[in-house]
Model the fold of this input.
Amino acid sequence: MMKLREMVQDFVREVLQGVFLDVVLDDGSLVTCHCCMDSKLTIISLQVNDIVRNICIEDIQDIYSGKELERLPTTTPLDDNCATLVMANDRCVSFKFKSVAAREHFATCMKVLRLASVADV
Done:
């Protein structure tokens, strides 16, 4: 449990400052976005050039990765290095990571943050 806590704390420090992630587009191509969260850890902001998309963490219904991606009704080509945030409005955003370990790190931390936000409600 202590290791998970440290992992999530490190992740939070990173996303508060902002990290660059590759978003998977419908045609399978990748676009790099700047991803950060607000200080309350309630809003995820994704910025590509001048376009910013905000995602409320409470609106995230599921976080899929790896083999779980087969359950997603999407035509976007995804693989084991991808993680997808599925929102309440059935919209989703998929990220591609350099390794399965990096994907799992992201997905695990996002799941913990999502569960924490739901517990606060």
